[in-house]
Specification:
Blueprint (H helix, E strand, L loop, with lengths): L1 E3 L3 E6 L11 E6 L1 H11 L5 E3 L1 E3 L2 H12 L8 E3 L6 E4 L8 E4 L23 E5 H6 L1 H12 L6 E5 L14 H8 L2 E5 H8 L4 H7 L5 E5 L4 E6 L10 E4 L2 E2 L7 H15 L3 H16 L11 H8 L3 H6 L1 E2 L5 E2 L1
Length: 325
């Protein structure tokens, strides 16, 4: 799977207290598409991250750490003139304000010429997000080129990933255009309501009639899958509740959900299993301050993925990492 988009150096507090009083910060890495790639690799799916970084220590850290997670980083370009972006996350269980320092970054200079360098037909999935489309005009055209280029049997997944700050001087109407060109669309009902004014599954299906697969995430409630059958009509929507979790910090959970869902889709799993696979991977990320966390032990996954609704609903991922009923 090819995951294409910007990743940055990420700084999170390494001590308690209000952010303006914190003096010690932990440097890690983060970015929607590389988060998905790392989660996929942890789940045993071959993945590659395609991007651009600066010829600087942060760029080297990104390539080294994402590569060490089992992701192919050979297609990451090194820009000698532009820096690697960075962002700062103020962690908290109820939400984590994020401050970006990415203007003029190496990745923001990516453009449609990149498409000719990629073997799109050789990929089973190409994963994109709306974040890339907001970085610059050239990045927006890169996303359009990827969505309209011949791709053989490869499918494209598109996570809307609404970031209002990035769209302040741009027209977000293009997000509906891009989503309609994808094969799999993932979107939160809250972000859909913010950008399109509609967040319910029926309304979103009316807005996005073309993607064969539409996943609407409802936060801690769960997720709904709307999918077109072989006869060209939508089958009955499937809802799967989220796994209960003692949340440490929520950023990165959406990327983890996407990876779990896409990995199960590649396996050909049934709709409920695909949604639950997304919830299980999101759950472990909710239990950490980092954007990527290792999957749950296989014995826990095996016990939950096919569990009846009562058993699934009674399960909870607690602070010690164990599922208790």
């Amino acid at each position: 799977m090819l995951c294409i988009g910007e990743s940055m150096a990420l700084f999170v507090p390494a001590e308690p207290g209000p952010p303006h009083e914190v003096r010690t910060w932990k440097r890690t890495i983060g970015g929607a598409e590389s988060n998905v790639a790392c989660n996929l690799a942890a789940l045993g799916v071959r993945s590659a991250w395609v991007s651009a970084v600066g010829d600087d220590p942060f760029g080297r850290a990104l390539r080294d750490e994402i590569g060490a997670a089992g992701v192919d980083v050979r297609a990451v370009a090194i820009d000698p003139a532009r820096p690697t972006g960075l962002y700062v996350k103020e962690s908290g269980a109820q939400g984590s304000p994020v401050r970006y320092y990415r203007t003029g970054s190496a990745a923001s200079a990516m453009g449609p010429d990149l498409v000719a360098e990629l073997d799109l037909a050789g990929a089973d999935f190409i994963h994109l997000s709306g974040i890339t489309a907001a970085l610059s005009e050239s990045c927006r055209e890169l996303v359009r080129a990827l969505l309209t280029a011949p791709r053989g049997t490869a499918r494209i997944s598109f996570d809307v990933n609404w970031r209002p700050r990035l769209w302040q001087d741009r027209d977000p109407a293009v997000l509906a255009e891009f989503a309609n060109l994808a094969d799999v669309v993932l979107v939160g009902d809250d972000e859909a309501a913010a950008v399109w004014g509609v967040g319910d599954p029926a309304g979103l299906r009316a807005l996005l009639p073309d993607p064969p697969t539409l996943v609407i995430k409802h936060g801690e409630r769960g997720a709904t899958l709307v999918e077109r059958g072989a006869d060209g009509t939508d089958s009955e929507a499937v809802f799967a509740p989220a796994l209960s979790v003692d949340v440490v910090e929520p950023v990165g959970a959406g990327d983890a959900f996407a990876a779990g869902f896409l990995a199960a889709t590649l396996r050909g799993d049934d709709p409920r299993t695909r949604l639950r696979s997304g919830h299980l991977q999101a759950a472990v990320t909710l239990r950490t301050h980092d954007d990527v966390a290792p999957p749950l032990p296989s014995w826990i996954v095996a016990g939950l993925i096919g569990a009846d609704d009562e058993t699934w609903g009674a399960a909870r991922l607690t602070g010690d990492g164990m599922v208790r009923r």
